[in-house]
Amino acid sequence: MLQTLRLLAILEGISYLLLFGFSMPLKYWANIREPNIYIGYIHGFLFIAFIILAYVFCRQQQWGMKTYFKFFLASLLPYGTFYMEQNYLRNKDPN
């Protein structure tokens, strides 16, 4: 499950950056809406999957809600999931 969560954290972070750095500028500056729709769906799926899997993983590791809240906040911030993957999931130490 650890490897899956690490991969999901990276993919969710990439989709977040693609959404805000690529498809939203196309939508609002160039009036091209199609990439935003597809990248938005992919990002939404990855976001929900990351949140659910992070909750299950934190429960499995008995890390507590404070660490889960860090995962949740990281999913809302650009580069946040990359930070969590590097500092929490690679080392697997919540403190």
Chain-wise SSE layout:
Layout (H helix, E strand, L loop, with lengths): L1 H28 L4 H28 L3 H12 L3 H10 L6
Write a short abstract of this structure:
The protein is mainly α.
Can you describe this structure?
This protein is mainly alpha-helical and 95 residues long. It has four helices and no strands. It has one domain. The protein is elongated. The mean pLDDT is 88.
| H/E topology pattern | HHHH
Radius of gyration: 14 Å
Q: How much of the sequence is in beta strands?
A: under 5%
Shape: elongated
How far apart are the termini?
20 Å
Q: Roughly what is the average pLDDT, rounded to an integer?
A: 88
Provide the helix percentage.
Answer: over 70%
Features:
single chain, 95 residues, mainly alpha, 4 helices, 82% helix, elongated
